[in-house]
Write the structure tokens for this entry.
Amino acid sequence: MKDVVIVGGGLSGLSAGWRLRHWDTVVLESGSRVGGRIRSERRGRYWLNWGGHVFAGPGTATDALLTEAGVGTAQVPGALAGLSMNGKLLLRGRIETYPFRIPMPLASRVALLKAGLKVGAEVLKYAKLVQQRPGEDPARRQQRIYDFQNTRSFRDFVGDLPEDAEALFRPTVTRSAADPHELSAGAGIGYFSLVWNIGQGLNRGISGGPSTLTEGLAAALGDRVELGAEVTEIVHKRQSVVVRYRQNGMDHEVEARSVVLATPATVAHRVAVDLPADIRRALGEVRYGPYVSAAFLTDETTPQRWDDAYAIATPKRSFNIALNQSNFARAAESERRPGSSIMTFSPGSLARTLLEKTDEEILRIYTGDLGEVLGSGFGGSVVEAQVQRWETGAPYCFPGRAALQPALTRRDSRVFLAGDYLGTLYTETAIATGFSAAQEAASLLASERQQRSAQSCPPVAS
């Protein structure tokens, strides 16, 4: 019997596996690679990236994992909030000035300013509300974040807006993989708090690309990681849990004292068949939005006007943001070296439109839009391009999501949940919940080991 079976080889499952590496464990991953929605590949001094790209800094679970695993990071260099809209590219200046510098009808500008003031007032409330309080359990803080403005959508909060005004809001709000009418007002306000307070939250990149972390963790775990192992059912016995899975066309099962279930909520709901009814029901109600991303490797030899930018919001395009992944290497250059690596990201309704198309069609659309954003010569410099489809892309906070949290975070079985759907900080939530589930499992194992030891060594009669 294993000590722990970890179901899911994404960032959360690997984090749990790392913390449980001194116990008898196995990590079952259904796919052909580890990392889940973390995916990058090296190309010389650059890397292509299709998934998570920024990470939390000092004092976080992410920082602890990176330090323990010996993975280097750096603060994201360059402009983090560029904007391309209506034929103008802005890479300098304060974000608050953008509405005055982008060409748009007067009615849109006035509506944008009014809505911006309304959002700004709530951002101030949000920034105060989300602060960790002395001695506070992180779970209480997370519940407070979910509770904030959770009864209506962001669209209902800001009201109807003219086209250009709404377009400027979308890149920030839809980073959640949900559209404004799907996302809760509080979650949308939270994204603006993150964007307007550069230097807080997710602002670090991993040297060599994000998969440096996940591949490194998997390498450390060695043959404990089993790929192509699709879990079909998880059921409790009196003092253990049985995990059934299919691998290489054959059915298998493994028994363990506990399970860390680090899959998307949709999978957890399907396979954990005897979890308490309210927990299973809550898992079934978690919502995910799709996204499509693409990575482009180029070979241009001359400086580009966007060389110093990391992120460029692109309203009214087929993607809502372009990310200059080569900016990490560029920050250390004494002179501009050839090539670049660019990532595009299309969430929510943008993704739903693209998912109907072939990869070739998507790349043609993306290349055309990148040419208009970055310069007409972009298409001619592309030497490699790949699309990644994430149909179950990212969990998002919808109106009413707060009510699910108590059930999702209650621990009353041998199956411990982990994953980014349990919080609001994406990669940081994935790692933190992986750590938490690992700690719960280790505590259970240690307690039962002590009980077995006491039973095998009865007290000596006097």
In short: The longest helix spans residues 427-456. The radius of gyration is 23 Å. The CA atoms of residues 301 and 337 lie 7 Å apart. The first strand starts at residue 2 and ends at 7.
